[in-house]
Design a protein that fits this description.
By secondary structure, the chain is mainly α. Helices cover 88% and strands 0% of the residues. Belongs to the CCC1 family.
Length: 203
């Protein structure tokens, strides 16, 4: 059976090549989606932790929302710049290799990643994750309820991101989701706890 398959592929190289290209395209798409999920997870955890940290010192809703919005803007810009620089460096290396191989200007060059697209995607993913705790806290006046809602929304979103990331990365869903949840909880708890100590010290 294996010999027959090999023979078919040899007799129809276009079919084999097409299958390889399709597999490569699907793999690249999965990597992009996984990177988007990780970016959204970063935005969620960092913004929720920042808001809870500020909330540990100041109970006003405005303080939490403003700090969260500032974190969204700063984080999205940082992610975009970092991704742009990273992809530019990767692109330069691949262009240099094409130059050495004498393939500059060919079809292969069109398949190289775009730094601008990568930067925009990274910033968008971070912003989508960061906006969740902002929307959760923006309309709640009661301090305790606001903190509880931020934690609850972050928990639900972390679980969802963990599941999606596990599926895209072909990892065990339960274990992957548990890691994401525990990591997010730890970040929020440490930030809130340390800022509580900061407030108690009277500094």
């Amino acid at each position: 059976m294996a010999m027959n398959d090999t023979k078919v592929d040899a007799e129809n190289p276009a079919v084999s090549s097409s299958d390889d290209e399709t597999s490569l395209e699907l793999a690249q798409r999965a990597n992009w989606l996984r990177a988007a999920v990780l970016g959204a997870n970063d935005g969620l955890v960092s913004t929720a932790s920042l808001m809870l940290g500020v909330g540990a010192v100041k109970a006003e809703a405005r303080a939490m929302v403003v700090s969260g919005f500032a974190g969204l803007l700063a984080g999205a810009c940082s992610m975009a710049i970092g991704e742009f620089v990273s992809v530019c460096s990767q692109r330069d290396v691949e262009l240099a290799q094409l130059e050495r191989d004498g393939k500059r200007g060919g079809e292969e060059e069109k398949g190289l990643p775009s730094p601008a697209q990568a930067a925009a995607a990274s910033a968008m993913a971070f912003s989508l994750g960061a906006v969740l705790p902002l929307l959760a806290a923006g309309f709640i006046v009661n301090y305790r309820l606001r903190v509880a809602v931020v934690v609850a929304v972050a928990t639900a979103a972390l679980a969802a991101f963990g599941c999606v990331g596990a599926v895209l990365g072909r990892a065990p869903v339960l274990r992957s989701s548990a890691r994401v949840l525990i990591g997010g909880w730890a970040a929020m708890a440490v930030t809130f706890g340390l800022m509580r100590l900061f407030k108690a010290s009277g500094i």
